[in-house]
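Page 37, continued from 36.
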């Protein structure tokens, strides 16, 4: 029983990180109707900015405090992602208002390749580390309940708490603020939103900035766990099944989808892997997403599309 719970907890922690990446897809789709293929590149670009600024700022300004370096690096990375959002709106999205969805989709593919190249050009292509003080050592809990207790990763637990706090904040932002309601109005109909005075350009800069900040938090967490390397952008591939499962327009769906996939892939690898030769963790999410596409294409919480004839 203890081993089973350890596996479930590990899956929940991984699922929260998947949900955090998927959240970037959901936010941008909710506000612009664009499926942002550049989200993985944004995670990598933001993580590279954070890692390199943490190295450069102490050298430039002559201080040695790791805490101050991380705070300044985080602030610098946030400003960088806001600048990236502004450039994306000015150079790409502004010229594609009211175009077909496939046009905007192809634009995000181009943005993805551009950010990959710009990241290498500006920050280098080596593997960098991010150390924000997250504890690496494991901890034992429930020792009096289960024989030997449960072994949990403090780093995963802290990361999941940060992800949960960010998700809750963004949910309140979308539901309770005037800007959040404007973002939803733009997603429903660009032309109608413009006709009632909602500035489309400002809204798109805001939502891509928020998406960039979400990507930064995800990049910091994944960079702290794995190091900042170009394979980190592949983490976004695991977020595709998450948004398919939860629904492209649902923040709670991104959370639940991430948890389902995180727990499902851990349990399937442990209990089904020996019968099929292992490796289930690599493809479980995609098979599950395919099943949902066949049965419920809009996802668990997505808006059901009804065509009237």
């Amino acid at each position: 029983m203890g081993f089973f719970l350890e596996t479930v907890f590990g899956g929940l922690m991984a699922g929260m990180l998947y949900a955090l990446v998927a959240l970037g897809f959901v936010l941008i789709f909710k506000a612009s109707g664009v499926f942002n293929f550049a989200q993985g590149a944004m995670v990598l670009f933001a993580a590279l900015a954070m890692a390199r600024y943490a190295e450069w700022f102490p050298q430039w300004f002559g201080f040695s405090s790791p805490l101050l370096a991380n705070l300044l690096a985080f602030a610098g990375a946030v400003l960088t992602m806001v600048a990236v959002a502004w450039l994306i709106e000015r150079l790409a999205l502004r010229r594609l208002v009211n175009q077909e969805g496939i046009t905007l989709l192809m634009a995000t593919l181009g943005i993805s390749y551009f950010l990959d190249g710009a990241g290498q050009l500006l920050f280098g292509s080596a593997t960098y580390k991010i150390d924000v003080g997250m504890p690496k050592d494991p901890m034992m809990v429930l020792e009096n309940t289960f024989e030997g207790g449960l072994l949990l990763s403090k780093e995963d637990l802290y990361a999941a708490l940060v992800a949960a706090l960010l998700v809750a904040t963004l949910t309140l932002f979308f539901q309770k603020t005037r800007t959040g309601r404007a973002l939803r109005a733009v997603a429903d109909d660009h032309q109608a939103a413009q006709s009632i005075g909602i500035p489309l350009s400002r809204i798109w800069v805001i939502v891509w900035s928020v998406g960039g900040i979400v990507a930064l938090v995800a990049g910091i967490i994944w960079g702290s766990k794995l190091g900042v390397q170009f394979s980190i952008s592949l983490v976004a591939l695991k977020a595709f099944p998450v948004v398919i499962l939860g629904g492209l327009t649902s923040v709670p769906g991104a959370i639940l989808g991430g948890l389902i996939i995180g727990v499902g892939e851990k349990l399937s690898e442990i209990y089904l892997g020996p019968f099929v030769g292992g490796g289930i963790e690599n493809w479980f999410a995609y098979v599950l997403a395919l099943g949902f596409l066949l049965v419920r294409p809009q996802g668990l919480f997505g808006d059901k599309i009804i065509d009237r004839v």
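The CA atoms of residues 171 and 246 lie 15 Å apart. Flag for discussion at group meeting. DSSP finds twelve helices and two strands in the chain.
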